[in-house]
Automatic annotation (TrEMBL), chain A:
<dbReference type="GO" id="GO:0005681">
    <property type="term" value="C:spliceosomal complex"/>
</dbReference>
<comment type="similarity">
    <text>Belongs to the snRNP Sm proteins family.</text>
</comment>
<comment type="function">
    <text>Plays a role in pre-mRNA splicing as component of the U4/U6-U5 tri-snRNP complex that is involved in spliceosome assembly, and as component of the precatalytic spliceosome (spliceosome B complex). The heptameric LSM2-8 complex binds specifically to the 3'-terminal U-tract of U6 snRNA.</text>
</comment>
<keyword id="KW-0747">Spliceosome</keyword>
<feature type="domain" description="Sm">
    <location>
        <begin position="16"/>
        <end position="101"/>
    </location>
</feature>
<protein>
    <recommendedName>
        <fullName>U6 snRNA-associated Sm-like protein LSm3</fullName>
    </recommendedName>
</protein>
<dbReference type="InterPro" id="IPR001163">
    <property type="entry name" value="Sm_dom_euk/arc"/>
</dbReference>
<dbReference type="GO" id="GO:0003723">
    <property type="term" value="F:RNA binding"/>
</dbReference>
<dbReference type="GO" id="GO:0046540">
    <property type="term" value="C:U4/U6 x U5 tri-snRNP complex"/>
</dbReference>
UniProtKB/TrEMBL annotation, chain B:
<dbReference type="InterPro" id="IPR010920">
    <property type="entry name" value="LSM_dom_sf"/>
</dbReference>
<protein>
    <recommendedName>
        <fullName>U6 snRNA-associated Sm-like protein LSm6</fullName>
    </recommendedName>
</protein>
<dbReference type="InterPro" id="IPR001163">
    <property type="entry name" value="Sm_dom_euk/arc"/>
</dbReference>
<comment type="function">
    <text>Plays a role in pre-mRNA splicing as component of the U4/U6-U5 tri-snRNP complex that is involved in spliceosome assembly, and as component of the precatalytic spliceosome (spliceosome B complex). The heptameric LSM2-8 complex binds specifically to the 3'-terminal U-tract of U6 snRNA. Component of LSm protein complexes, which are involved in RNA processing and may function in a chaperone-like manner, facilitating the efficient association of RNA processing factors with their substrates.</text>
</comment>
<dbReference type="GO" id="GO:0120115">
    <property type="term" value="C:Lsm2-8 complex"/>
</dbReference>
<feature type="domain" description="Sm">
    <location>
        <begin position="7"/>
        <end position="79"/>
    </location>
</feature>
<dbReference type="Pfam" id="PF01423">
    <property type="entry name" value="LSM"/>
</dbReference>
<comment type="similarity">
    <text>Belongs to the snRNP Sm proteins family. SmF/LSm6 subfamily.</text>
</comment>
<keyword id="KW-0747">Spliceosome</keyword>
Length: 102, 108
């Protein structure tokens, strides 16, 4: 009986945001970082600081160049692939399931 | 539109499940339904939309936002045509960070 109550409490209490990211473990995940960087990779591990281990990750760095003559903004993105990556948590802005283009 | 004094945990219980705007230091807006929130201001949103100047990306399902990025001082919200707008100010964390969350009715 006590076990049932305990089990009920663990499922009924409001889960923390970190509990929800736990659901994404071992799934492909999108991570948005500071300095206009985005990562898409398999979430292997994370902690309360959002330090993250990502596998088979593609990093996209977006830069805006301003043409000196026309003053138009040119968006450029650079991609690179990394088999296994440790990300320090303070750079992480957002963690979500992979983006669908469109 | 009244500022009510209530304990932070009461406020959190009240706004969970409501549509909210989360404004980050970088100026990016995230609009979605508040799934949960913790003491570090880490936020989990559902049905999230990201706004940078104009609409950029759509995120469905949970989006987790790290607390340190949430804007600390948000003096006023941008004019919003939606008639139903509730403003709350809440005191969170020992450093006395003020967070203004604006809950409004999403156009369905």
């Amino acid at each position: 009986m006590a076990d049932d109550v305990d089990q009920q409490q663990t499922t009924n209490t409001v889960e923390e945001p970190l509990d929800l990211t736990r659901l994404s473990l071992d799934e492909r995940t999108y991570v948005k970082m500071r300095n206009d960087r985005e990562l898409q990779g398999r979430l292997h591990a994370y902690d309360q600081h959002l330090n993250t281990i990502l596998g088979d990750v593609e990093e996209t760095v977006t830069t805006i160049e301003i043409d000196e003559e026309t003053y138009e903004e040119i968006y450029k993105s650079t991609k690179r692939n990394i088999p296994m990556l440790f990300v320090r948590g303070d750079g992480v802005v957002l963690v979500a399931p992979p983006l669908r283009v469109g | 539109m009244s500022l009510r004094k209530q304990t932070p945990s009461d406020f959190l219980k009240q706004i969970i499940g409501r549509p909210v705007v989360v404004k980050l230091n970088s100026g990016v807006d995230y609009r979605g339904v508040l799934a949960c929130l913790d003491g570090y201001m880490n936020i989990a949103l559902e049905q999230t939309e990201e706004y940078v100047n104009g609409q950029l990306k759509n995120k469905y399902g949970d989006a987790f936002i790290r607390g340190n990025n949430v804007m600390r001082n948000w003096g006023h919200c941008s004019p919003d045509p939606e008639p139903c707008c509730l403003e709350y100010s809440v005191l969170l964390s020992p450093q006395h960070i003020f967070l203004l969350l604006v809950a409004w009715k999403l156009e369905l």
